[in-house]
Design brief:
The chain is of the alpha+beta class and about 110 residues long. The protein has one domain. It contains 2 helices and 4 strands; from the N terminus they run H-E-E-E-E-H. It has a 4-stranded antiparallel sheet with strand order 1-2-3-4. The two termini are about 15 Å apart.
């Protein structure tokens, strides 16, 4: 994903249609607003992944939006991704069975 290009697209869509993304969206602004959402990813099921930028970067939490449903992980990106891919956490807005049996982590 090209974070700069995709992030700008997501921010523009949010500004135009944010109120249609569900009730939590009404109270959430986009970064650089204080505590605003900073997009960092999306998935094949049209889920969007954000950091909630409250406090310093080490305090940012992960928010996931999928089909107007929201879920917040009270931890950072590393904890979120590690827990999700190891099957230690599940997010009700991420399809069951993620990441799948064929998921592999390779060192670059």
């Amino acid at each position: 994903m090209n974070l700069l290009a995709s992030g700008e697209r997501i921010r523009n869509a949010w500004r135009a249609f944010g109120a249609t993304f569900g009730p939590p969206a009404l109270s959430l602004a986009m970064y650089p607003a204080d505590g605003g959402l900073l997009p960092w990813g999306f998935d094949d099921d049209l889920g969007h992944y954000f950091w909630r930028t409250r406090g310093g970067p080490s305090e940012w939490t992960v928010l996931v939006e999928e089909s107007s449903q929201w879920w917040e992980f009270d931890g950072g990106f590393g904890e979120f991704w590690t827990g999700l891919t190891k099957g230690e956490i599940s997010a009700p807005v991420i399809p069951e069975g993620f990441p799948g049996d064929d998921y592999v982590v390779e060192r670059a």
